[in-house]
Each structure stands twice: as structure tokens, then as C-alpha cells.
Write a sequence for this structure.
């Protein structure tokens, strides 16, 4: 949990709330129990008074809680944003999954039959879901309505889909992987030579442009995993971003603008570069960003129809790019947060790591929170 409105330097803190071993998670129950307590805490934080009853409405057993009951809390707080990747949003909060037959998105009616339609009149563009529409749909389909929605003012708009997971680690990597997979055969007589030649080109690009986030090696498996049919570059997020201008360089150099298929790839890469260009503070303009994202999506959708089976496949994640574009939040505003979140996740995994002893909810949570407060000088608020 982070409290970004705290005065510096506390605004960057990530506070663990609890920790539990994955094997002990009961699907649809463990997290719901935790959100129940979170919601109760959020309600009290908004009211500004210490609670008189437990989250279950029962009197407190602990004497210290009864002593503090009704006292004023110096701070007010609400849960304003919740950031997670799609897998977590689906598994933990019951939001639609990318393979769900009845709909893949909480903000619209997009499903597996129509999500590749990016025209202005696409069914999902015309049928948008607000918070209550979404909850009604969950009810109609007998799906989970997470207890997190009991947090005051918490609505579906508080779930943030982020550029890092959707683009840097998703669509952009699909795009790069497909491009490199397509040009490889032209770079040598065998795959080893082809990959080595491509890596030399990348290193030359790094040198000429003083790139910081460089890859130290390139293997065929980084472009397409041997057991997968769909290419996807395996890079860190920052490495992906640094690779985008190179993608245009190689596409411009190697693809024939007179050939219909290759021209289509060139446009996809060009629009991808445009999308990333929009993110800089100086160039940010919401409507232009939206135009660039939709140009990229439409072109990719066309390219898929021309491509071989399994290549240039438009996965449901591309729909989430459309949602980011429609929302119009500047993605780079969340980068710093996102990287801190990832870093905090790593720190928590380390402090919760058990070398021995019991592994259960209580022991792991107790150990993680104690070790965290022992290792870091946690600010104290009165
Ligand atoms: Zn949608």
C-alpha cells in the first residue's frame, strides 16, 4: 500500500499489509477475507475515528482496541487506485479474464468475437460499462463481486491498467518478436548467423544512440520460445522501450514499401514508434496519443489477416491498449510508481522468505511484517 499524499520523503513508501504463502490461498476466499478487513479499515480512515467493533461487527476481544475505540485518527484516507497485472485483476478481484467467453473487459462489452474491431462503430465502442453496469453484469453472470468494492468511493475506474504490463511487457514485445522473426531469414544462411547478425545491428544502434537499457545478449529463444508458435521478445520493460526506435530502423532498412505485406509491417512499426513518442512529457497530447494507439491497433489487426498462422496474432491484451488510449491518462505518470511497485514486490518476497520453520498464513505474515519493520525505519504517524 502506498500513501502518495504523505509529505516527502514518505510519499514513496510501500507498506506491506499482510503476506501469505501461495499454497495456502483458498481461491475466492482468502483475498476476500483480507479485502473485508481493508474495506473496514478504509471506512474508519474516512470517518477519522478508531473503530468500536471489529470488521465482522463483533465486539473487540483486545483491551487496547476497546481503549482506543472512538478516538480521532489524525489522517483521512481512501483507496484511490489499485494497480495490478491482468492475471491478478482477474484471479484476485474477479474482473474479466482474457479468455472469458462472455466478455473480456470491465469497461465495455468487448468479447473474443469482436475485440479486434477498432472502428468507431465497433460494438464495444458503442456499449461502454460504467461501475454499476459492470457490477450488474457480474451479478447476472453469477460472478464474484469483490469485497474490495466496499471500500468507500472505490469503483471500477480505480483499477489501473498500466502501460508497463500492457505494452512494454505485452503488445510491444509481440510486435518486436514478430518483426525480428520475419527479418531473420534475410540475415544469414543459418539461424545462428542470423541471430548474431541481428545482435550486431542492435549493438551498433546502442552505440550510435548512447542507449542505457541495453541487452547483453540475443538468442533465438528470446525472439520466440522453442515451444511456442507466436514470436514474442523476452526483454525487461526498459529494454523493450529502448528497442522501439531500433525496430523502425530495421523495418525501414529491410522491408520493401512496395510490397503490400511488408508495407503493412512497416506501418505497424511506424505507429508503434508514434505511440511511444507520445509518452514524453514534451509531446504528450491526449487526443494525438489516442489517434496513434488506434492507428497502431487497426494496422495490426489488418496485418494479422494477411500473416501466416500464428504470426502477428492480435491477443486480447491489445484491447487493453485501446482502453488505455480511451481513458487518456498519461501512462508515463505511472512509470515511477509501477517500477517502485515491482521493486517492493521483490523486497517483500525476500523478507517473507522462510529458511525453515512453519509455513502457514500466520507465520509468514508475522515474519514478513516483523522483518520489514526491523529492516526499514518505518515512519510513525500520530
Ligand atoms: Zn473494453
Amino acid at each position: 500500500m502506498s500513501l502518495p499524499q504523505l509529505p516527502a520523503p514518505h510519499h514513496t513508501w510501500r507498506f506491506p499489509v499482510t503476506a501469505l504463502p501461495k499454497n495456502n490461498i483458498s481461491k475466492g476466499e482468502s483475498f476476500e477475507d483480507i479485502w473485508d478487513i481493508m474495506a473496514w479499515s478504509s471506512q474508519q480512515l474516512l470517518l477519522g475515528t478508531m473503530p468500536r467493533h471489529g470488521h465482522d461487527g463483533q465486539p473487540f476481544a483486545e483491551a487496547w482496541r476497546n481503549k482506543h475505540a472512538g478516538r480521532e485518527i489524525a489522517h483521512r484516507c481512501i483507496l484511490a487506485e489499485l494497480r495490478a497485472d491482468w492475471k491478478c485483476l482477474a484471479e484476485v478481484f474477479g474482473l474479466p479474464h482474457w479468455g472469458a467467453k462472455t466478455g473480456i473487459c470491465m469497461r465495455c462489452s468487448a468479447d473474443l468475437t469482436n475485440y479486434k474491431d477498432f472502428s468507431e462503430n465497433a460494438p464495444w465502442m458503442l456499449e461502454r460499462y460504467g461501475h454499476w453496469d459492470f457490477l450488474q453484469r457480474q451479478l447476472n453472470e453469477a460472478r464474484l463481486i469483490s469485497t474490495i468494492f466496499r471500500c468507500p468511493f472505490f469503483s471500477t475506474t480505480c483499477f489501473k491498467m498500466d502501460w508497463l504490463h500492457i505494452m512494454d511487457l505485452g503488445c510491444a514485445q509481440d510486435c518486436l518478436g514478430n518483426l525480428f522473426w520475419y527479418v531473420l531469414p534475410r540475415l544469414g544462411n543459418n539461424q545462428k548467423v542470423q541471430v548474431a547478425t541481428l545482435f550486431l545491428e542492435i549493438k551498433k544502434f546502442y552505440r550510435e544512440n548512447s542507449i542505457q537499457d541495453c541487452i547483453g545478449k540475443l538468442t533465438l529463444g528470446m525472439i520466440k520460445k522453442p515451444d511456442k508458435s507466436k514470436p514474442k521478445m523476452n526483454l525487461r520493460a526498459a529494454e523493450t522501450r529502448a528497442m522501439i526506435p531500433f525496430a523502425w530502423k530495421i523495418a525501414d532498412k529491410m522491408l520493401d514499401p512496395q510490397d503490400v505485406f511488408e508495407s503493412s509491417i512497416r506501418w505497424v512499426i511506424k505507429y508503434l514508434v508514434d505511440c511511444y513518442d507520445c509518452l514524453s512529457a514534451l509531446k504528450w497530447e491526449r487526443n494525438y496519443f489516442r489517434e496513434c494507439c488506434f492507428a497502431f491497433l487497426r494496422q495490426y489487426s489488418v496485418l494479422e489477416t494477411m500473416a501466416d498462422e500464428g504470426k502477428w496474432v492480435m491477443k486480447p491484451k491489445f484491447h487493453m491498449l485501446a482502453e488505455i488510449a480511451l481513458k487518456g491518462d498519461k501512462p508515463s505518470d505511472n512509470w515511477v510508481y509501477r517500477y517502485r511497485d515491482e521493486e517492493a514486490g521483490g523486497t517483500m518476497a525476500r523478507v517473507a522468505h522462510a529458511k525453515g520453520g512453519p509455513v502457514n498464513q500466520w507465520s509468514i505474515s508475522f515474519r514478513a511484517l516483523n522483518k520489514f519493520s526491523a529492516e526499514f525505519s518505518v515512519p510513525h504517524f500520530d
Notes: The longest helix spans residues 163-183. The two ends are 18 Å apart (CA to CA). The chain has a mean pLDDT of 91. The beta strands are 82-83, 159-160.
